[in-house]
Each structure stands twice: as C-alpha cells, then as structure tokens.
Write a structure and sequence with these properties.
By secondary structure, the chain is of the alpha+beta class. It is built from three helices and nine strands; from the N terminus they run E-H-H-E-E-E-E-E-E-E-H-E. The chain has helices spanning 12-16, 19-29, 103-106; strands at 2-6, 38-42, 53-55, 58-60, 63-65, 68-75, 78-85, 94-98, 114-119. The chain starts with a strand and ends with a strand.
Length: 120
Amino acid sequence: MLGKVTAGVGQAGYYLTRDGYRQQFLDRLGFIPFPGTLNVLLEEPFSASAPVILIHGFSKGRESFAGCRCYRIRINGLDAVAIRPEKSSHPPELMEVIAPVNLRRALNLKDGDIVEVSTS
C-alpha cells in the first residue's frame, strides 16, 4: 500500500523516551526506537494482517500513559513498526512508524514523499 509522508505534531519523542515504554519496546520489539515517529497518510485505513504486539500502559507519579498496538511492517524496504496508541486523535489512515533509526534520514524522506508500506 502507498502513503504520503506528512508532518506530525512533535509529541512522539516525549512518549518514546519514557522508561515504561522504552523497556517494553526493547523486550517486545527488539530495539529502542529513535525518539520520533514518521507519520504516513495512507490511501486507505491501515488493516494489519501482521500479528499485534501489545505495549502496555503504565503510570509514573501523576502521569498515566496509555498502551499501544504495534505491527511489524516494511517501509520502502526497511524494517519498522507501525504503532497505534490507544489514545489517539489520528484518523485510521494516519500511521505512526517507529524504527531504531531516524526514518526520514535513513530513507531520505521529506513531507509529501510517497512511500510503500507492507506488512512483514
């Protein structure tokens, strides 16, 4: 399926660096993600045929962090993970993608570029 790289709101880095998430990403996905997501607006809603990997929510002090569902994908041939936070205002066509590297740099992407997404 094809999608278009789009700008995010810049909040993912905060969440991806929380210890409660980082350890689960390492244990369940095998890597600690680059502190940011690549946002891809798909032609149609993402329907995962890949098995779901659950990241559980947690609390730290007064803050509560929701869980998310993760799906192994490939984006332009590079292994990555689509994440679907339980609490999100994104439409179903917008996918947030994480990887151990900065995907924009690794794939030389800018807003508006078309990418190919496949489940792995």
